[in-house]
């Protein structure tokens, strides 16, 4: 306890203010998220009682066994004209829960209220969605606190640059959707990529030569890797890519895919660029007389070390999201080959293109960092 | 010719050209990782095995391949391996809880058209599968952080063998903090890239903020990003502590 108090005393006023501010935001947002029902137009109800009505076993045409349950739910309306009144709902769910949910007491749901009441004059209705906002906000706070406690200042910067990037992305997409024609997506994402590179790298590393070298590298690396991906797609006339797997399309699939590829590899390329340039500058700072040859050799060694792991980060991030869909396909008696090629072709293409970007960035980064080191050497 | 084949060949050539032998190993590890993912999915088809346990075994295999096979077995990689597993277990428990309360399993209303041809009552537990998806998307970054920290802490200890456990732990934390920003960035952008279609969709159909945050599809993506960040942060103190304790202990013995 005493250590804790001393720690608080040690903190500067600015830090103090920051922590007070964060705690304040935390409390306000939690209070708000628990009492925001009146801000929604759709009726919300809180489950107060559930009872299991019946259980049936099912077997589908692919011999998958599952259990279906019907539950009666009594819930209390939390907003709208009928606030406070009970509503009776019926919910069907399965033990696998691919598309349905089991509700327990205390859960909040969006409902549609039937026009006519039942014989006893009670309100009835259907569940349309789950109210997830409070859980999302709580997870977001766990994220923020974990990053602040473990990452301290760097954690703070990570959160701030993350928020700025989300705002940039959202704003750019607003402009795209509202003001420009469909084809401009690639231009907008190129512009976004440049902005992202500046905000992220400057935030993580500050204004110095390392960062400038990394920014130049990132821009070259991303554009090169995109060019190679584009060339490969053109040469093979996109044979083997199943665009039909793309979900949520309101725009031409090719544009969305290329723009996604662009932004997706950007982070990995930045990671390589900043790691390489920091290490090369570090080597120079430690020994100003270091020869060009040994700088190159050490730089390549570092590149070799990070190449595999960073490609892996991309690989897992892209491929894992398809697991539920793959399971559904396979459970519906699709063959393994068909399932994989239908669902993973775009993800694998993205991961490979990202990997190419990562590997290409290593030599680019090496030479650009050395160029900046030499410039610094001449100055001093 | 197939695009994927051509891209794979380009990547292979570049990796050999730049990475030499290590490049070949890195490229092969991608294939092995892919094989592990496919195997994991095949095991998940059996409704009698708990998907969380399958995920855990898959994570052990993946860490083995990427830490011990690619970088070869030595005290550094073994520490990174143990730290990764410890973090994964903690994270898996946390994420399993989160997927249960947020009900983000399976598929959303937006996908209903596509799902019409499928039978959805297939018997596997999609809540647990949702948890395993999140873990699997993060494991690459978690391994990256742990191997970087163990390598650097080892290096620091070799230069100055009089360092105490606490000093080593603190320098581990410092190194971790430096990678925290870049690694979360890598993941964030990878996710942004793959969700781009969804983001444009949401804007095109002018979803309100309330609809966005409560929709299953979107909250799944948000929870994945947030949990990935939590995982990357969590591995930092765990790896630093394990490497610091190990190094100090082995010094006392010798």
Automatic annotation (TrEMBL), chain B:
InterPro entries hit by this protein: UCP031503_TM, YibE_F
Membrane-spanning ranges: 5-20, 27-45, 51-70, 77-98, 118-142, 186-202, 222-248
Keyword Membrane tagged: yes
Key word Transmembrane helix present: yes
One Pfam family linked to the record: YibE_F
Alphabetic keyword roster: Membrane, Transmembrane, Transmembrane helix
Origin: domain of life: Bacteria
Name recorded for this polypeptide: YibE/F family protein
